[in-house]
Amino acid sequence: MPPSALQGQVIPKMQDCGKCSLCCKLIEVPGLASAGEWCPHCDPGNPVGGCTIHSKRPSFCKNFHCFWRAEDWPEWLRPDMSGVIFESLPGVETVLVSVDPSQPDSWKEPGVRKVIEILRRKCRPVILRTKSDSMMFIPDGMGKDDILRDVRQVIDWQEKQKWQHQHTQQTLAHSI
Length: 176
Ligand code: SF4
Ligand code: SF4
Prior knowledge:
binds iron/sulfur cluster; single chain; 6 helices; 4-stranded mixed beta sheet; alpha+beta; globular
């Protein structure tokens, strides 16, 4: 398993990230990089993994696994090829889809739309984030209160992540 991008612990059965490092661009790591900008520690496209500080990367990076990596999805859905990262948020059914600003229409591809629709039909709300916009795909029958509860949980989770990121970034700054 090469050291790559935000890939986490070495867990058998997870797919090899290969040349993909897209989470090092699309996922915010406060103190390191904003969402949509490459982390300064990333060497994008490196065939043996993009993270140049692999052994010292923050715990968030270690623990991050996109759906493609964790769910054994087909090759064409690998985020650097599809232009989208699907991720699951802890504690909520909602799926977050981040779109690569370099491939802004990638989420409109029929295959990607089909995955979004399958998730939606499985009663999993999908929040899609582009550089300038966000939208939600809501399962049939999901009420306003359920939606608001999910959105609140997503916001709470993001706030918690920010705090954790700041903490790990301080640790990282002392160790590099
Ligand atoms: S987006 Fe997924 S496949 Fe790509 S580097 Fe990150 S964890 Fe690996
Ligand atoms: S520290 Fe490494 S794994 Fe984490 S975002 Fe930066 S390049 Fe990616």
